[in-house]
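tl;dr need the bound structure. longer version: we got a ligand (EPU) that a collaborator sent over and nobodys looked at where it sits. i said id run it. heres the input, straight from their email, havent touched it
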Amino acid sequence: MIVEKQVPLQAYNSFGIVAKAHQLVRIREEADLLGLLASADWAGLTRGGMPFVLGGGSNLVITGDVKPLVLKVEIMGRRLVDDGPKGWLVEAGAGENWHAFVQWTLQQGWPGLENLALIPGTVGASPVQNIGAYGVELQDRFHSLDAIDLRTGESFTLDAGKCGFGYRDSVFKHASSDTRDFGLAGRALITRVRFWLPKAWKPVLGYADLERRMAETGNTAPDAQTLFDWICAIRRAKLPDPAVIGNAGSFFKNPTVSPDVCADIIAREPKVVHYPMPDGSIKLAAGWLIDACGWKGRGVGNAGVYEKQALVLVNRGGATGGEVVTLARAIQTSVYERFGIRLEPEPVVI
Ligand code: EPU
C-alpha cells in the first residue's frame, strides 16, 4: 500500500478545480482496502476524520486542499455474470468509466443502458447519485452492489430495495442516525455494481428531445445503438464536455412542489416548465427557473452559468470551489426571492 502525499486533484474532478489531497491511497482491488483497514497505519491516517471516497469526481466541488485521507477507487473489470432466459446480469468494477461501460454493454449485444449514455463519472458513483436521464434511472436497471464498510472492514452486498433509491438520491447520500439505521454516507466504499438487462428490450422514448429526433429521421422504432447515438448527440448539443469546460452536470435538482404551490406560480409566471409526477406532486424545471432569473451567461469570478443550459455551472478557467459555491448561493437566493423555491444542489461540496 502506497500513501501518496500532496496529490494534485485537478484531473480527478470534472470541474477541474485546482486543489491537493494531503494523502491519497489508490484502491485497485478489494484486498488493497482490506489490507489498509487492517494495517497499523489506518488509525494515524484517519485521525482527522473518516476518509473521503473519490470516484470519477464528476459530482464534486472542492473548496480547498482535502485533509481527510482520500481513497481513490480504481477497481476495474467488466463481466457477464449470468445469461438467463429473461435477461443478462452484468457486473463492473467501481472504477470503470460509466460511459465506456454503457458502450461496451451495447457492443456485446446487451441493450438497456443506452439512455444513460455520456453521463460523466464512474460505475461506483452511479448508484450513489441514482443517475438518470431521458426517462431511465439507474434504479430501473440496477441489480445489486458489493461494498466494504470502512468502519468494520466487513464486505456486504445490497440489492435495490436496500439502497433507498430516490430522485438523485440513495442510502449512500445520508448519514446514519441513532434512531434509524439508514444511511451509509462516508461509511461504505462501493467495489462492484451489477445490472440486470432484460432480454425483452423496449426503447424508452417518452422525452421531447427524442420525439423530435423520431420526427426528424422518420425512425419511430430505433434500436438501442441508434438511441445511444441520439442521446449522445442531444447531450453534446446542450451540455458542456467536462474535458473542455469544467462542470458537474446539472448543479441543482429539479424541485418538486404541491399542485397548489404550482398553481400559485403559474398564476404569476404562466410559462414555468412543469411536469406532473405519478405521486400527484409537480416537478419544476430548475433550469427554467434559473434562466428566468436571468442567470444564463453570468457568473462569479471564473465560475459561470453555462450559456446553453442554466442548470449547469461551469469553470471558465481557474475557478475556485469557493467561487462555484458563491455563485450557487447567489442563484439559490434569486430563485427563492422570485419563486419562493429553495433549490437543492446535486454535487457534494468538500
Ligand atoms: N430550460 C430553460 N432554460 C435553461 C435550461 C432548461 O428554459 O437554461 C427548460 C428547457 O427548455 C426544458 C426544461 O427546462 O423545457 C428542462 O430542461 P432539460 O430538458 O434540459 O432537462 P433538465 O430538467 O434540465 C434533467 C436532468 C439531466 C438529464 C435531463 C434529461 C436533473 C437535475 N437534470 O435536466 O441530468 O440529463 O433531464 O433527462 O434532473 C444531471 O443530473 O447531471 C443531468 C444532466
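gonna send this back to them w/ a short note. Residues 27 and 260 are 49 Å apart (CA to CA).
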